[in-house]
Design goal:
alpha/beta, Rossmann fold, 8-stranded mixed beta sheet, 20 helices
Length: about 450
């Protein structure tokens, strides 16, 4: 039995790996290969193409990635023709798998050139939408496994052979170790507030979202005594990018301090700035080396009472342990995307943020009226705003910090948001979605082998 799984970026890599594990558990002799990243490799998949860094947002980034994607597409076509798998499993990544504009997707191509290969589309694009205007899946997939119940009924209405299997994240989202053990390893005081910072998995998110999150953290630090910060690092993100972002802010804030103090001598200015810049220290297990210790915060505004700005600014960068970061945090400051649904499964209150580059800003202004009313998955699924969210110009450090501080200082609001998140998660079905999908893949493969 030969199955090709085609995934894109970090979230698809995890979901595809989970599916591959279930296929190989049920049929140990099955050979699974395709595109993915570290998670697919760990699941025993023969990763022919690394697609974990192919995530994109907007037309500008799509154009920048287009030459690479076209080259990969040609290689995928060649390998599929050579191997001719019994089942092809595209996972999400609608632009690559279904096509966009004049670019033909993988599924339409496979329909023409691999008529004997069955296609099971896992996690169809836009499956969270309550109402679909149309879809090309009817002619480009034998069957579809979808994670939302309303997606099944909508796709069937449009002529697609769709089955609701439950959301795969229900099986994936769990911390690797108990929170007290994780906290001890990273030097956390769990009796004091912990804020988790999740900047996203794409390089462009690190460039445009992380700096705003760090600025917000500096404000939160000044106003909430003893607050600690964890930065959850996705496998596709270079730790050096995080360190450079922190160092850039340190230098800029130091320059602002020196410029703003006019009555003292230069030496006195530097001393004053140092007193208002608590050291960004790394705790045990953090991945910032000692020679890269930086300063993060700027002097408080004149009308803001300073609470703990002379203490240590505790921030740890945690690699490949996002669910542990979520579990240990009281509030999350997160980029929109899959992370918001993962946080909801752990019932973690969050403030959601998204910013794009200046090249994407005109595109956002043009299409924002046609966009969904929310960007965070919990809000989309609840069809109302249960978690604060800020996009583009509204995503300022002051706005983000204000919401996080309010959540930390209002326990009743935290409890109410947790209850709302629990209701959202109840819509995702029961655990075991990947196993149910694996049985569908195997049934397709075996039907294909026994067909006359």
């Amino acid at each position: 039995m030969q199955v090709a799984i085609i995934t894109g970026e970090a979230s698809g890599d995890r979901v595809g790996a989970q599916l591959a594990e279930e296929i190989r558990r049920l049929r140990p002799a099955a050979h699974v290969w395709g595109s993915g990243g570290r998670h697919m490799e760990r699941a025993g998949v023969e990763v022919v193409w690394d697609s974990s860094r192919f995530g994109m947002v907007g037309i500008a980034q799509a154009i920048r990635l287009l030459p690479r994607l076209l080259k990969v597409r040609q290689s995928v076509h060649h390998e599929l023709l050579r191997r001719r798998p019994g089942v092809l499993v595209p996972v999400d990544a609608g632009g690559f798998n279904l096509g966009f504009g004049p670019i033909q997707g993988l599924c339409p191509w496979a329909r023409r050139h691999l008529p004997d290969t069955k296609i099971l589309y896992y996690f169809p694009p836009g499956s969270w939408r309550r109402r679909l205007k149309g879809t090309t899946l009817a002619g480009n997939a034998d069957t579809v496994a979808t994670p939302f119940p309303w997606s099944e009924s909508e796709l069937r209405r449009l002529g697609v052979n769709a089955t609701f299997v439950g959301h795969p994240l229900l099986d994936l989202v769990r911390p690797a170790e108990p929170t007290p053990d994780f906290g001890a390893r990273y030097g956390l005081d769990l009796d004091k507030p912990v804020v988790g910072i999740l900047p996203g998995s794409r390089p462009q998110e690190i460039a445009h979202i992380l700096p705003v999150q760090l600025e917000a953290a500096s404000i939160i630090h000044r106003r909430v005594p003893g607050v600690q910060f964890l930065v959850g690092l996705a496998p596709t993100v270079d730790r050096g990018d995080i360190v450079r972002a922190v160092e850039h802010l340190r230098r800029r804030h130091a320059a602002e301090h020196e410029h703003s103090v006019s009555r003292a001598s230069k030496d006195a200015q530097r001393d004053a700035a140092a007193r208002h810049l608590p050291p960004l220290v790394t705790v045990e297990g953090a991945l910032v080396p000692p020679d890269e210790v930086a300063h993060l915060t700027k002097a408080p505004a004149k009308r803001v009472e300073k609470t703990d700005s002379d203490g240590e600014f505790n921030l740890a960068i945690v690699e490949d342990a996002t669910y542990d970061v979520m579990a240990a945090s009281d509030v999350l400051l997160t980029a929109s995307g899959t992370a918001t649904l993962e946080a909801a499964i752990l019932h973690k209150p969050m403030v959601i943020v998204y910013r794009m580059s200046r090249w994407n800003a005109p595109e956002y202004l043009l299409v924002r009226k046609a966009l969904p009313p929310h960007i965070g998955m919990p809000n989309l699924l609840a069809e109302r705003r249960i978690c604060p969210e800020f996009v583009q110009d509204e995503a300022t450090p002051d706005n983000l910090a204000r919401e996080v501080i309010d959540l930390l200082l209002q326990p009743e609001r935290l409890l109410h948001m947790k209850a709302d998140l629990k209701n959202v998660v109840s819509q995702l079905g029961e655990p075991g979605g990947a196993a149910r999908t694996a049985r569908m893949v195997i049934a397709l493969a075996e039907t294909n082998r026994t067909a006359p």
